[in-house]
Amino acid sequence: MAEMNKVVGIIGWQNSGKTTLVVELVKHLVAKGLNVSTVKHAHHAFDIDKPGKDSFKHREAGAREVMVASDTRWALMRELESEMQPSLPDLVSRMADADIILAEGFKSGHHPKIEVWRDPETELLARTDPNIIAVIAPSGVLLHDCPCPVLARDDLTLIADLVHKTCGVQLETQGTAAR
Q1: Which residues of the chain have pLDDT under 50?
Q2: pTM here?
Q3: Structural domains in the chain?
Q4: DSSP element (H, E) containing 38
């Protein structure tokens, strides 16, 4: 089971570049030999299933949980019905152990977060959220009154170093994680 001390959030306003950064970080960290997982918060209803597929028909018929499995992956879909949306700790507790879990979204959580910021017209969340450990901004941008370090968006190595240090993962010289 995964633990919350391995979670770093990637947050920001819509179209700030969160998903792009998560994808780049996953590639970078996996290349260093780390076991990386992700969890994404959606602010709207979503469906990973397609009408007409057998698993869709199972859910449509009223199945509360539907698991789809193949020789390459499995997915479990659960209808919440009247249940509350699960919290990030609840979701993480259901995941397999990982060196690092990147949580995209989940702005209101109390886990360490990195804010992706690029639009001067949007509020800087780091000014009011003490859980934000760094802000990622375009190179050369100065953010006045920012209570945490500001890292250049194009310095992926520095950003990745912050992530793995925050999760307590030390990299060996060969590029594999020491656990």
Answers
A1: 173-176
A2: 0.87
A3: 4-44+85-178 (3.40.50.300)
A4: strand 36-40
